[in-house]
Amino acid sequence: MHVSAKADYAVRALLLLAEHAPEVVKVEQLAVEQDLPQQYAEGILNDLRKLGFVTSRRGAHGGYSLAREAREIAVGDVVRGLDGPLVTVRAVPPGRLTYDGVARHLPALWELTDQRLREVLDGVTLDDLLRGAVGA
Q: pTM for the full model?
C-alpha cells in the first residue's frame, strides 16, 4: 500500500478539525499548524466537503469543521474516498484478478492483504488518533 500525500494531508487536516471541534478552522490556520501548502489544503478540504467529512462556512468568520463526530470517521473511509481501493494490482482490485498456473493462488494473497488493511484502517477513527489509541 502506498499512502498518497493527499490522503496523509487529508487525515492531518481532519485531525486538526477534530481537535478544534466544534469550532470553525480557517484554511490559513490549518496550513500553518500542519505545515501544508495552503492551495493544496484548500483543494483537499473541498474534496473532503464533497465526500461529506467536513462542512464549510463562508465569510469573515468562515472556515471548515467536521461534518460528523471524530469517533464516527474511520481513517479507511477517508483514504478510500480520496484514493480509491486500498489494494490494487496494476489498477485492478484483487477480487477481479485471475492467474493461471503457478500464480493461480496469488490473487488470494492480494485479497487477504486488502482485507487486513481494511481491518486496520477501518478500525481506527479520528478520535482514536487524537487519543493515541492506535493498536490498543
A: 0.90
